[in-house]
Write a structure and sequence with these properties.
- The chain is of the alpha/beta class.
- The protein is 40% helix and 22% strand.
- A seven-stranded mixed beta sheet has the order 3-2-1-4-5-6-7, sandwiched between helices.
- Helix 1 (13-24) packs across helix 6 and helix 5 crosses helix 6 (169-199).
- It starts with a strand and ends with a helix.
- The structure holds 5-O-phosphono-beta-D-ribofuranosylamine.
- 5-O-phosphono-beta-D-ribofuranosylamine (GRF) is lined by residues 8, 10-15, 44, 88-89, 109, 111, 124, 173, 177, 181.
Length: 200
């Protein structure tokens, strides 16, 4: 059984999809043991508490240096013997030190079909604003491994979503979350846990 940490910054709807998928048995080779938020007050922390999952707030502003922030994050992950790190709406860019400590064991959900509308500065609503501005007819979500290049790691799963006439960024974001993110992230987590168990 792989110990999973979910890193969050916002409402935690992707975290909720993971919790629900663990409860339904879709995720069967992993257990969410820890939620780490980049800031106080993230609603994702409420979701963790309601699900009885330990949570920590590790905010960059609380540390004197990036190295001390990394140390704190790595200590929490080690304490919970984490085998898979899931970035679910997490807004910090992880340092090379953290990425190398969990090489090929960190995954991220991005709200577009990479390589479109990704990389530095493309997060949250900005992604959907760019998709609408370009006029794409199809967008979607991507789960990928995290490496030192923002949104640059190997793609694990993708799911396409239709852009509709009159879509606002908010309406499109919601459709991409409901029809793509909340579907492929749990599947990707189970896929990774299954592989990690086999490779043990
Ligand atoms: C959403 O924009 C989602 O597409 C991205 O992070 C944002 C917040 O997600 N992955 P969540 O509700 O906090 O999971």
């Amino acid at each position: 059984m792989v110990n999973i940490a979910v890193l969050v910054s916002g409402s935690g709807t992707n975290l909720q999809a993971l919790i629900d998928s663990q409860n339904s048995g879709l995720i069967r080779d992993g257990r969410i043991r820890l939620v780490v938020s980049s800031r106080q007050g993230a609603y994702a922390l409420e979701r963790a508490r309601a699900a009885g999952i330990d949570a920590a707030v590790i905010a960059k502003k609380d540390y004197a240096s990036p190295e001390e922030f990394d140390r704190a994050l790595l200590d929490w992950l080690a304490q919970y013997q984490i085998g898979l790190v899931v970035l679910a709406g997490y807004l910090n860019i992880l340092s090379p030190a953290v990425i190398s400590a969990y090489r090929d064991r960190i995954i991220n959900i991005h709200p577009s079909l990479i390589p479109s509308f990704c990389g530095d500065g493309f997060y949250g609503l900005k992604v959907h604003e760019a998709a609408l501005a370009y006029g794409v007819k199809v967008t979607g979500a991507t789960v990928h491994l995290v490496n030192e290049i923002t949104d640059g790691g190997r793609i694990l799963l993708q799911k396409a979503v239709e852009v509709q006439e009159g879509d606002t960024p908010e309406v499109l974001q919601r459709r991409v979350m409901e029809q793509a993110e909340w579907v492929i992230l749990p599947r990707a987590v189970q896929m990774c846990c299954e592989k990690l168990e086999q490779d043990k």
